[in-house]
Amino acid sequence: MSGETALNRNTEKANVLVLGPLVPDMIEPVSAFANPVSYWKHNGVAECRAACGGDFRALVSTGESVVAREFLDELPLLEVIVNYGVGYDGIDMDAVAERNIKVTNTPDVLTEDVADLALVLAIALRRRIIQADRYVRDGKWESDGMMPYTDRFHGKRIGIAGLGRIGRAVARRLEGFDARIGYFDIARFDVPYQYFDNLGDLARDSDVLIVTMPGGSKTRGAINAEVLSSLGPEGSLVNVSRGSVVDEPALVEALRQGRIGGAALDVFANEPHVPAALTSMPNVILSPHTASGTWETRNAMRDLVVQNLRNWLEARPLVTPVN
Ligand code: 8YV
């Protein structure tokens, strides 16, 4: 009997199915009050159920998990989904509502790290930091002399698509760069930034368009061919939200045809798959969905997941419910 199986035979604790893998030390704190079963170590739900000898009351998912109706059908006793991530667009919320399942996420704790990475990507793209590093390593500095000039970042027109928590944290940072900030959202807010009621106009008025809107059916493909053309051949796209928000084939085409200047992407439509065309483009920076991936933030996310789970199992109010 494996260690996990032996642990999970403790029938006094609730069985928790953990999708992932998550942070390495997620399982240990959960083991203190529940029976976690690592989905990725088994072959399907039936095998997980066999490992702990019972059904699951709780599910831990990630920002990338797809929790479809059919999957929920396999978990008839499920009461709560504790998501390790702020975005829960992979969860079928209609199916969740029909089953009266509660969902929690991890807002706030990751906001500042995601905003940091958005700025890092934007500046790296404009100032060609990746190329500069390669220039030195390849000995070009010595052989060819000065590297070609790059584009300025500070003082530029920056468009923020989605002024939620992360969008606002991006805007706060941009104030320090004397940026002219514009934003699009479904509502206008009382903020000192210019409001655009559509993405095309925002893109047209931006040197850099930073995407921070949530994923899901309402925003799918929102950054389409038309928006990209509006951004223009000198414009840069940065995406730290969800791959689904950008029409990826349209982005590849826009880059190929020079209809936009470049893109820095932390998220993709079909992770971890990245379209081959993007990997060969010099004006593209690729990052493996790592915006919240610092020890500090991931530990805080883990703690929030553990607290939500614990509260649920002890019938106390959830810390960060979304429904
Ligand atoms: C992931 C994210 O959750 O918060 C989100 O919505 O996409 C990320 O923080 C993270 O990669 C862990 O899976």
What does this structure look like?
The protein is of the alpha/beta class. Helix content is 36%, strand content 16%. The chain contains 14 helices and twelve strands. Helix 4 links the parallel strand 3 and strand 4. Helix 6 crosses helix 9.
Topology:
Layout: H1 3-8, E1 14-18, H2 27-31, E2 34-38, H3 45-52, E3 58-62, H4 69-73, E4 80-84, H5 93-98, E5 102-104, H6 111-127, H7 129-137, H8 140-144, E6 157-161, H9 165-175, E7 180-184, E8 194-196, H10 199-204, E9 208-211, H11 225-231, E10 236-239, H12 248-256, E11 262-265, H13 276-279, E12 284-286, H14 295-313
Parallel strand pairs: 1-2, 1-3, 3-4, 4-5, 6-7, 6-9, 7-8, 9-10, 10-11, 11-12
Helix pairs in contact: 6-9
The structure holds 2-keto-D-gluconic acid (8YV).
State the CATH class of the largest domain.
Alpha Beta
Within CATH, the superfamily of the largest domain carries the name NAD(P)-binding Rossmann-like Domain
Query: In sequence order, what are the helices and strands, one letter per element?
Result: HEHEHEHEHEHHHEHEEHEHEHEHEH
According to DSSP, the number of beta strands is 12
The CATH topology of the largest domain comes to Rossmann fold
Low-confidence runs: 5-11
Number of alpha- plus pi-helical segments:
14
N-to-C span: 39 Å
Assembly classification = single chain
